[in-house]
Amino acid sequence: MYNWFECKVRYDKTLDTGMIKTVTEPYLVDAMSFTEAEARILEEMQPYMSGEFTVSDIKRVRFSDTFFNETGDRYYKAKLYFITLDEKSGTEKKTAVNMLVQASVLKEAVEIVETEMNKTMVDYTLASITETAIMDVFKYSAESQSKTGK
C-alpha cells in the first residue's frame, strides 16, 4: 500500500531558446511522513539538478490504487465510483475513489483502468480520467532506503 505525497520542486530551467526560467514541477513520492517525503524528493532529484533547487510544497494525495505502465510517459488521475447496495434501504450507494494510471495517451489510460477493473468483482462507473502535471513517481524500494541509511 502506497502512501503518496505530491512534492513541488522549484528550480531554474534552461529553455530551448537559452533563456533561464524558474519553474515548479510536481513529483509523487511514496513516504511515511512529510519529513520523509521531503528527504526522499531531495535525494531523488539531486542527480538531475545542476543548480540549486527547493521543495516549495508537499501535500498528501490519496490514490486507492496505482497502475504503472513502464512504456507510459504521462500520469493520469482516474476517478471511479464503486457501486454498492445498501442492504437496509435497498438503494445504490456510490463511493468515489481516485486511481493513478501511467500511460502514453488518454485512450491507453482508459484501457488500463478497464482491464484492471475487469479483474475484480466490483461494480463501478468511470467518472473521469484527466492528465496530471506529475513529472515522475518515486515508489518506495529497499534500494532507496539503503541509500539514505535507514
Give a quick summary of the entry.
The chain is of the alpha/beta class.
Q: What's the helix count?
A: 3
Rg, Å, rounded:
18 Å
Overall average pLDDT: 90
How many angstroms separate the termini? Answer: 19 Å
Explain how this protein is built.
The chain is of the alpha/beta class and 150 residues long. It is built from 3 helices and 8 strands; from the N terminus they run E-E-H-E-E-E-E-H-E-E-H. Strands 3-1-2-8 form a 4-stranded mixed beta sheet, with helices on one face. It has a 4-stranded mixed beta sheet with strand order 4-6-5-7, covered by helices on one side. A hairpin with a 5-residue loop joins strand 1 and strand 2. The radius of gyration is 18 Å and the shape is elongated.
Question: What attributes characterize this protein structure?
Answer:
alpha/beta; 3 helices; four-stranded mixed beta sheet; 8 strands; single chain; 150 residues; disordered C terminus
